[in-house]
Specification:
alpha+beta, seven-stranded mixed β-sheet, 4 helices, globular
Length: 148
């Protein structure tokens, strides 16, 4: 199992490639640039937390987390905005390890929940999140996992 760690600036070219691969998987064309990733992950006001799965030949996957809030309840949360594992590394528990690291990160930030959305047709991802302890909360589908 490759180690999961916070991304550093030198990871951005590989993360960019992975983000483009995720977009292609969904039939989209990614327009994100390295400059935008650097701004949003390492700029003066970071918007995204990136966790990466590092292997011997580079990054095998990443998780991108964005803050959320339920102000009326005073509840902090995180959205697992992206989770991607490259084709050659799937089926080895890397996605699960990235999710666990994302949950740990959210808990360390005082969050009481993590949300994630999937494409309505992506039954595999929906099953994956259910198996990881997430509950479906909307029909589009969106999932949430409460943290202790």
């Amino acid at each position: 199992m490759p180690p999961i760690r916070p991304a550093v600036k030198s990871d951005l070219p590989m993360v960019l490639d992975l983000a483009h691969a995720l977009a292609a998987y969904h039939g989209d064309t990614a327009t994100v640039t390295r400059a935008a990733l650097e701004r949003d992950c390492f700029g003066p006001t970071p918007w995204v937390t990136l966790l990466v799965a590092e292997g011997a030949t580079g990054l095998h996957g990443y998780a991108a987390l964005c803050p959320r809030m339920q102000l009326q309840f005073g509840a902090r949360g995180m959205d697992l905005h992206h989770l991607f594992v490259c084709d050659t590394a799937r089926g080895r528990g890397i996605g699960r390890a990235l999710v666990e690291a994302a949950l740990d990160h959210a808990q360390s930030q005082g969050c009481s929940y993590v949300t994630v959305g999937t494409d309505t047709k992506n039954r595999r991802a929906q099953g994956f999140y259910r198996a990881a302890g997430f509950d479906q909360i909307t029909p589009d589908p969106r999932f949430r996992r409460r943290l202790a």
